[in-house]
Amino acid sequence: MIRIALDAMGGDHAPSVVVEGAVQAVLKNAGKFQVVLCGPQAQVEAELKRLNYTGDAISVVDAPELVAMDDHPTEVLKRKQNSGLVTCVALQKKGMVQASVSAGNSGAMMASCLMILGRQTDRFTRPPIGCSVPTRKGRVVLVDAGANVDEKAPMLVDFAIAGSVFAECYLGHTNPKVGLLNMGEEEKKGPAVIQETYQLLKEAPVNFIGNIEGRDFIAGVADVVVCSGFTGNIVLKMLEGFYELHQEFFGTIDSPAGKKFAEMWDYRNTGGALLLGLNGTGIIAHGRSDAQAIEQAVLVAYQFAAQQVPEKIGQKLAGIKDL
Amino acid sequence: MIRIALDAMGGDHAPSVVVEGAVQAVLKNAGKFQVVLCGPQAQVEAELKRLNYTGDAISVVDAPELVAMDDHPTEVLKRKQNSGLVTCVALQKKGMVQASVSAGNSGAMMASCLMILGRQTDRFTRPPIGCSVPTRKGRVVLVDAGANVDEKAPMLVDFAIAGSVFAECYLGHTNPKVGLLNMGEEEKKGPAVIQETYQLLKEAPVNFIGNIEGRDFIAGVADVVVCSGFTGNIVLKMLEGFYELHQEFFGTIDSPAGKKFAEMWDYRNTGGALLLGLNGTGIIAHGRSDAQAIEQAVLVAYQFAAQQVPEKIGQKLAGIKDL
């Protein structure tokens, strides 16, 4: 049975919505996985009691220390080993769970996963964030969604490789099309590092379709969109901002199209972003997560663990050590 | 009387919509400016006749050569001096018009403006594109919207200075707030060049408010958004793509909010982007421009010329030669 560790104190509305999300996840997916809630035991158990949950698909591991959103990542790792966040990843390292999820301090989650689980390649400075993003043709993978900056070309190629496995295993894209986010379609467009990446991607073990522009991204031309963490973060937050503006203008429009649009763009249906290139599955959920978002993040974690996505990424990356 | 030169053969739907746009512009703004249409004389005059325009606010200068969208910019400048595009800028250099507008080959328009009008500072490789972009709080200036790549920090500071004059003169923002587009608000976030730019902007003669994220951009937190031409181009095309998707889902929603949203995001209300840091006003209109978009581009050109935006930018840039 796959077990998912969930940081009970992570996110703006913890622990209540986190525990609610866990309960919903196990009730709707009975027999598939178990959730291990890591947090202050009495408090977490009180939430379970409030929700009348008495099943055996959820267990609690006591982790009384609290991580603040502005705690320095490496300090958390050093001084708050009994926090829910660090406990999740430590359990995973011991093989007691197969994935970890936190909606808390994302820098601390990244540092914990990096230091405790370890990286699959030295070419990554930090594990790139892979995030599924809605487009006209369905969900695609954006990588890096915000972990790295000033990447060299071979690292961007690794993003493409890791993103392709993500798109194949999680989104079901066969031989996923990889697009390099750029300001034009021509080979000679864009910053020097992007032009260099273009040449490397032509030789890389991915289905490279060339440069894609901002409009193509939204149109869903590529299944995997490769860019710097800097660009990815800006793009992702801009889409979030645009959707929020849309909601402010119209709310959820009461029509089939309106429901489909909301379903596409509501961040809660994303569930969480995956830290790629690590020896294991670490999921960063949105700090604003409500119960539905947490439920989705747990599901995502389950799917990654069940399909051994990190292992598959590791195999692909190992094959190109000589970039 | 201010005169605007308009490339009659520029854009996907030239010359018909271009001439229509010119006629609408002069009819709606009688006595403010004149338009000089540059293109094959007989063809342009036939369009004017079709539209029954017989006033004296439009004149035609014969420019029989045609520029294709894939013509190499510098080749256009060398070999197609009798094209509408090059003729516009040449007339401006001679002082016969005060601004030039083309919806044609934007690389050729940029090269022509750069080579014929000349640049105001050697810190610009290419003139950055300033573009007004809708936000929750109204229009703001994005600079660079796609001309440059791999900019050094001092050049990004110049973008901020030029963009501030743009925002003040054209959009009416007093002491416009300058935001540096980044992946986080903290000073130490982002690529090395962005961190360096942050430090320079603190000392620059602009109203620097710090880093802004993608969501802040859409929220309208800054009046001037500074970024690389690479980032600006991606962001702008992504917004265009998102709005197109919205239109595909809903069309223009028949309500006051729907009309306001459409008015905000319809590219035709932007009219054109300004090439900044040149000795004169050069406007690049969207290749897909219809008559309404051309009319708006002519109006934008008029406003820049009337308010001497390029001269004011030049004065500000001259003051910081020692960056």
Q: C-alpha Rg of chain A, in Å?
A: 19 Å
In total, the number of strands of chain A is 11
Find the biggest chain interface: A-B, 44 and 44 residues
* Structure annotation, total helices of chain A: 12
Mean pLDDT of chain A: 94
What is the CATH T-level topology of the largest domain in chain A? Isopropylmalate Dehydrogenase
Can you say what the CATH homologous superfamily of the largest domain in chain A is?
Isopropylmalate Dehydrogenase
Second CATH tier, the architecture of the largest domain in chain A: 3-Layer(aba) Sandwich
| Structural class designation of chain A | alpha/beta
Overall, the morphology of chain A is globular
Query: For the record, what CATH class of the largest domain in chain A applies?
Result: Alpha Beta
Q: Beta fraction of the residues of chain A? A: 15-25%
The major β-sheet of chain A equals: 11 strands, mixed
Q: Could you tell me how far the N terminus lies from the C terminus of chain A, measured between alpha carbons in angstroms?
A: 38 Å
Describe the structure in brief:
Chain A is of the alpha/beta class.
Q: What report would you give on this structure?
A:
The structure is a homodimer of 323-residue chains. Helix content of chain A is 45%, strand content 16%. In chain A, strand 2 (33-39), helix 2 (41-50) and strand 3 form a beta-alpha-beta unit. In chain A, helix 1 (16-28) packs across helix 11, helix 4 packs parallel to helix 5 and helix 6 (153-169) crosses helix 7. Chain A contains 12 helices and 11 strands. In chain A, strands 3-2-1-4-11-10-5-6-9-7-8 form an 11-stranded mixed beta sheet, with helices on both faces. Chain A has 2 domains: 1-119 and 277-307, 3-Layer(aba) Sandwich (Isopropylmalate Dehydrogenase); 122-269, Isopropylmalate Dehydrogenase, CATH 3.40.718.10. The mean pLDDT of chain A is 94. The A-B interface holds A 136, 146, 149-150, 181-184, 190-192, 194, 213-219, 228-231, 233-242, 244-246, 248-250, 253, 257-258, 260-261 and B 136, 146, 149-150, 181-184, 190-192, 194, 213-219, 228-231, 233-242, 244-246, 248-250, 253, 257-258, 260-261.
